[in-house]
Amino acid sequence: MFAAKAPKARSSVVPKERTLERPTPKTSNNTSSRDKNSLSTTSFDSQELSWTSNHDSSDYSEFHGGNDIDDEHIYSKNDRTLVAYFGPLPREAEEALNNTDSYAHPMISKVDFDTGFGMVVSQTKCYIWAVQKETTYRSPPMCYTLPMPPNNNPTTETVPLLPVVTITKSDEPHYGILACSPDGTCWYWNNIDICFSNVDQHVDTKINISPKDYVSKVECAGPMGYFAATKFGNVYQVSVKKQYGTSTLALTQLNGKAGGAIASIFSMIGVVQGPDESQKLAAMTSGPRLQDQHGRWDLYVMTRRSLFKWHLYRSGECTLEVEVPLRDEIKDRILEDHTAVLPMGSDPCVRVLDIQYIKNGKLLEEDVRPEASPKLVVPQGGPGVFIVMPRSVILSSTLPDSKFEDLVPLKSDVIIGSGYEDWKQQHAQDLATSSELTIICKSSGRLGIHLQLDDKGHPLPLTATSPKNEKEEMTAQLQAKLEQAVFFSGKKHNPISFDLAHYDGGDLNQASLNVSREILNSHAPLLGAGRDVTTGLSVRFQRIKNIIDCIQDADMASRLAVDTKFQLCWSTEKLAAANEVWNQYQQRRGDVRDDKTLKENLDRVLHDAATKSLHKIGAHNTEDPLATFMKYHINELGALLFNLQTSVAKTQESHRAILIRDINKILIASLRSAWNFRRLNIGKYALQDRSTLEPWTGTENIIKALAAQYTATLSLCQAVPDQDGTSMDVDKDSSESLAPLERELRDQLCDLADFTLQAHSEHLQYLEGLPKSAENSIRISTTIAAYDIAKTTLLGPLGNLDKVQRAIQLAQKYKDFTTIVRLSSGDEEVISDYIVMYQQEFANALFQWYIDNDRYAKLLEQSDLHSDLFTNFIDSRDCNEVGWLHDIKIKRFGEGSRRLQEVAAKETYLDRRMTIASLSKLLFLAEGTRDGLVHEGTASYAARCNEELNTLTIQVDVANFWEVKVGAMVSIPDKAEAVLKKLGSPLLTEQNVLRKVVLDAIERLLERNVLSSEDLLDVLMLQQAWEINNMDVCGVALDICFQATDIPENRRPYVLQDIWRRVFIADKDAYWRLEDVSDSEARERLMASWMCRAYAVIYHADGHKDEKMLRPQEAKCTMPGSLFRERCLASSDSDCQDEAELKIQYENLIQDYERENNELDKRIREGQLLEKWQRVKMIVKEERAAAMNLGSQEATMEDVEMA
């Protein structure tokens, strides 16, 4: 019956090319005839279809030389089973079925391949037609109608009773028809050909049965005759006798107790009287004849509890061979093993043997039709087994070690009968490699079910690798069923149900992804082979779209993970995009078929890209790499698109523009197709959720490919016109004129910009969905920066190419407000509309654009119109240069003061910095007097303002002091050299690096540039003047050391060392001895020294701040080399980046400081520095006490005079 069988286990090798041979229908040579004098198996209007196999590489033996089945008629197929359509029922039978109530007036069907007839039987009629296993009927076959024997059975059965009809081969070469009504009336037509000429030409007889009994089975047992069995197990042999040229019927009840042979069966199993409910006869059939000396036949009897196999002998004896407890087997599966896929998964609404089927704790309604109970069918004696139910067929195997089970369920149709090849004489070891069953459906006609077995009689596995556990086996079953649903559920008039819920124990995510992957890469066995690339891509696209539809139809979409849904969508997108790549390629080849060079260039680029892609994934290259890629490697489509643009560079300049145009078409069409599919199926795939996987259209390779193609296209659009007026490098002899090509390239440029930004946004969205980590945060920041740059880079040039409107549309789509501002800056009304539309986002871009283009007047004008937006703008970014003005407008004086202080910190010009700092202090004072409250941090902020102003005032005073000292000189370097001479430091001439540092600081100060605090201290402490413009140098230096914020805390202790060390070595006359001079002279000399001035500052300070004072032994420089390196890097004259030069510089600076240390040690040893330091402290204290006494005496005198 079948030749187009389900393929064997999948092969892991790369599929080879196959050639499709189109089917050629073969019409039967026999003519249609309704001549009642003749009815044979070839007399009907039929078409026998012979097709060359176009399926996968599996090779199946022909079943009785049958012809291949047209793919159009295949309703379901997997690696194990195949369901095909073999044509409709006769019109008369179909009309009768459609016009009859199946419950009140049921009808049953039967197909007998041994005789070649099929029939549909009602209570009053029997419709008979010829059938052939190898024939598919395109139109309804012709049939004949026979009347059925009358039925006067008074039984009270709720099940409507039907006649039992069998076609028997009574005498050669004719077939006879035996019909028995439930009440025992038997009619027999000896010759089918003759009986149709006169339906009344039959012989009859009557079986006498009890009123409550009725005939339920009729079976032919070869030479043992024909047996009619009743409900209560009474079996009668019906023999056809020839007498005087006519046929008669003879009845003989089987010998034995009441019920004949069947009664003896019940007696042997312990039942004395008639059968109870569970032992009523359910089925009876004879088996194959065994070639032994006994000449025995097998009789199979099935009750509602068990199945019995008996040997019948000509002598009338019988022996029981086996009893199979079917009831217990099915009970355990259905009622106890709730995870069982079958038969629980088949959901039959019928009574299974003597158990009523319960699902989810609910008793289902029992079907009362005659064929509602399960029918066990074992074609050819096994090992294939079919259990036929009203709405489904369960497939299994008789092999003891086989766990195979499969299901062929119907949507809404009903099975009214079946047929199969009878048992044959065969040895036990000669197992068939396939089993087949024909079922007759009420609406769908004749269907065939094929079960493929291996050479040992086992069903073929569903996967190439054996499942390791039950979960994997159930997943394999689910995958096979999903694959069938994808390929066959959409077929018109397909009655097969592909409800995946029957296999809900499998992993749906894995199964769906496997099916998707196999379709995507042409590895699905049901795809077949031999199709051209265009047809193959179209078929695969339609099939892969069905995956999500089938899952939704089964109401199982909620079981799919978010990532799985995205992967299913992306796989479908890739096939949609691949369709466009291939179609555009073929179309472009057709357009340039007259230009050999253009065609060769296009072929070369596409084939180079395919070759590179195949090489990257390690795939085998072929003579046609593009076709190979399109058939088997669509999953790597992103690599192909990336490699397209890399192959364009090899093209001749004269054809470059046209080739770039063609590649643009392919890129744009493919990606547009993918994104359109995604947009239209957001709800179907639940794409509103966020996946943790990177979309294939948002990878870095796709972004690079689009960006590179944009750049190449832009270079063509912006090319300088040559002498012929051509603005691009096109072939002057080309039939394509310049203007259309340039317009097309500009349009493509807009699309490329759009797609590149779309890819950027997808990549960013993917990164934002990843788990939070420091590494991901860096990647997100980098991607955002690249995205922002890409917006301006891609959309900016469009305005210069007369694509302003499209540029604005894309800028709105991707929220590139900078481009919108730039393109609409002159239209105030449009700007106002955008502010209303986008609020803060657009306002931020607008204000920043004004700042970047120095349009501060317009900025302040907008700040008046949109005060709140401008306030948010300046608060969210570094806009202190203009923000403080707005703060004054809205009376945020404190915030304005803070902004001005930050502006002052960045200002390098001394006078301007001092002005800004003064304004900051004024705003601070205004904030303090506005509400009269002392806010947290006010005191510290006020101190910082004062410190900043004091430091700046000192620098101004020093600069002015030196300007007066050196007089009018022409150049700043000359003035700096003159100042350096006036400093008079005895060691500075030997300190080369330090001298350069100080000279540079003096130059900058004379240029009215701001010095760092450390540079300022170097300048102050290396000169000889105690006071500058009435400013005590020592006191100022100590204040700067402890108050300056630009001195790092790790260097502040060493800065204090520098101050005191230079105090101790500042005096030129330092080596006189105390014993060589008088006390008064010594006192006078010491009071004129730097250390006396410095100690006086410390002693007179409030609280005697001892932390500011260092003894001579503590003033030596001990700063580590690393801090010297930091100081050199921070120095204004250290702009070198070479580490070797930097090391030399700070090592030389350390040597300069060592000279100061050596000088300090020498003065301690030879200049009595420690003794002089003690005398200085005594002198300061004495002077302090004398001043206090004098002050008290003057106060007393004033009091006396007043009295």
From TrEMBL:
Query: In which broad location class does this protein mainly occur, judging by the first location in its UniProt entry?
Result: nucleus
User: Carries keyword Transport?
Assistant: yes
Where is the Nucleoporin Nup133/Nup155-like N-terminal domain positioned along the sequence?
Answer: 84-361
Q: Which organism is it from?
A: Linnemannia gamsii
Q: Which domain of life is it from?
A: Eukaryota
One of this protein's Pfam families, by short name?
Answer: Nucleoporin_C
Where are the stretches annotated Disordered?
A: 1-64
The places in or outside the cell where this protein is found are: Nucleus envelope
Q: Which PANTHER family match?
A: NUCLEAR PORE COMPLEX PROTEIN NUP133
Biased amino acid composition, Basic and acidic residues: 15-24
Can you name this protein? Nucleoporin Nup133/Nup155-like C-terminal domain-containing protein
Composition-biased stretches, type Polar residues, lie in 25-55
Coiled-coil annotation reads 1136-1170
- InterPro entries found in the cross-reference section: Nucleoporin_Nup133/Nup155_C (IPR007187), Nucleoporin_Nup133/Nup155_N (IPR014908), Nup133-like (IPR037624), WD40/YVTN_repeat-like_dom_sf (IPR015943)
Keyword set for this entry? Coiled coil, mRNA transport, Nucleus, Protein transport, Translocation, Transport
So what family is this one in?
A: Belongs to the nucleoporin Nup133 family.
* Residue intervals of the Nucleoporin Nup133/Nup155-like C-terminal domain: 762-1175
